[in-house]
Design brief:
The protein has 76 residues and is mainly beta. Helix content is 0%, strand content 37%. Strands 2-1-8 form a three-stranded antiparallel β-sheet, with no helix packed on it.
Length: 76
């Protein structure tokens, strides 16, 4: 089982607890709260570049469930 430690608030949590955020595969936009991947009908659109696709295509990266920070350290 993968465990993470947040580098901001030092909260330790398992991979199941992590909030998985869709991230643009072209420019990695998605963690910033002001620039999240936008839902438009059946498509996901990146607010930063011209990428758009279906719901199955974006990358998903974990965030801390406590403070929503993206910078995590794997500890297990």
């Amino acid at each position: 089982m993968v465990k993470y430690k947040c580098t901001r608030c030092e909260y330790e949590f398992s991979e199941e607890e992590a909030i998985m955020v869709p991230v643009c595969p072209d420019c990695t936009t998605g963690h910033n709260k002001l620039y999240r991947i936008m839902h438009s009908g059946d498509l996901l659109k990146c607010p930063n570049c011209a990428w758009d696709s279906t719901f199955s295509d974006p990358l998903h990266e974990p965030e801390c469930p406590k403070c929503r920070d993206q910078y995590l350290k794997k500890i297990g």
